[in-house]
Amino acid sequence: MEVINEEKSCEKPPPDFSKLPDTVWVKVMQMLSLNDRFYVSVMCSRLNEVFNHPSVWHTVIIKLLGDESRHITENNEDRVSMAECYIKMIERFGGYFQNLTLMFIGYFSGMSKPCRHVLEQLSERCRLERLTLHVGIIRTKIDYYAMRERVGKYMGDDLEALAMFVANAHRLNAFILKSWPCLNNPSTSQEHRTNILKVLTSNRQIHNLEHMCLFYEHDSNWMTLNPVLPKPSEIREMLKAFQNIKFLSLRLCMIDEGVLDELAVPLRQSKLKKLQILVTWSRHREDLAVPDIPSSTWRKLTKACPNLNVEFTFMTRMPWMEKSAVLKPDIPVTSLQFNEYSNLGASDIQTITSRYSECLQKFTSYTKDTDDCMGDVLACLSKMCPQINTFVYHGKISQNTILALVTSHPNTWKQFEVQESEIIFDNEDGDDDDTVIGRRDDGQLYLTAINRKPCEDPRHEGSLIKLFERVSEILGRKWYAVPHQNESLSE
Questions:
Q1: Considering only CA atoms, which of 271, 270, 289, 269 is closest in space to residue 279?
Q2: DSSP code of 128?
Q3: What is the pLDDT of residues 66-115, one digit of tens each?
Q4: CA 107, CA 65: separation in Å to the nearest integer?
Q5: 350-365 exposure pattern, b = at least 16 Cβ within 10 A, e = fewer
């Protein structure tokens, strides 16, 4: 007689991942690196079929070395073999590529033969819809001359090969340029062939481009402040060739009245829908000063493009007067972001509230350089802006302010994010808000602000849990403050 183990019979069988649909496996495979994809593909025939699925190869990131002289090692074969892997990948799957990101790590000063072969294969086999170029670290004038002194020659030939890749592009719908080694080539004979703006303009096959991003960074941290960038006059001439631009991202120093006038021309085939502007300001450089753009020019652009949304990102510290000169009342601003090394004061928020209450949808602040008393102005911002649906704030904020913000739009918050370490619980020790110095039971004096420091108060954890539960109840979904910067907060 067979004895049946009741405990084993009650155990659930392990999940059978082979029964997952192909769409799920394709999504998983898309998130893996090239090496990991290969290792997964050799596990079984089913996963090998997924590996060869065209959708897996729609989005590809290729990383190459931008400065060979800084990466000289005894084992040079490793670097060559990586390029060979890319070449084999392109030969097999290049026809499926749609969204390509091509990165040159470090400073770009030349390309090896395998890297050139990669470019040749990409140009020959791929018909991209979206191209992102990150050609080394964005350069300043000092970087360029220092590189030329060290290398002993200009990298014009290698840069020309990279420019030819862009010149031969077909049917691009989006072009994103994060960095380019040098825009003003000292060798006049090669200027036209290596200047990326002129290369773009000369390629008539991509003049139907709808999305263009030039030297715009979405990173909330630091980036190069003094790079070599195109002048507004160059941007204006380039835009004349691209009549279908709907989404445009530029730095503020690349914009002037003429650029906006070109975007407002009635005969343009498509109307601009989104304009993203990265603000970098310095009192020591004239080219980084706030451009003098009349309000009438913004009104003209808004009239020509009635569905225009303007998004500002502030990278550096700026006085209130300069910010106010940038944020003119006639601009249809839908999003404002203050990066980690910028600054934000109560007067800034009051200006934003008074000027953009009817159109502001996203407010994001990663900076900790804020005024002490921001609760009232933040609550007023949320209350006065009926369309706001995104609030990210990494500065000091009280629990009462959080509750006031959440309650003002309980059903419309798409993202509501604060940092756990920056939450202040008012009167946690029974002290008055105006009390600066308190007295302990033993008679010792202490600063009340230090005593309320969350990480040192054992009761703070319980207060956090209660706050999370209260906010979750208001939002109708689970909510937590982010424990560290740049982590996701909502489930």
A1: 289
A2: -
A3: 655 444 444 444 344 577 888 889 999 999 999 999 998 877 777 778 88
A4: 9
A5: ebbbebbbebbbbbbb
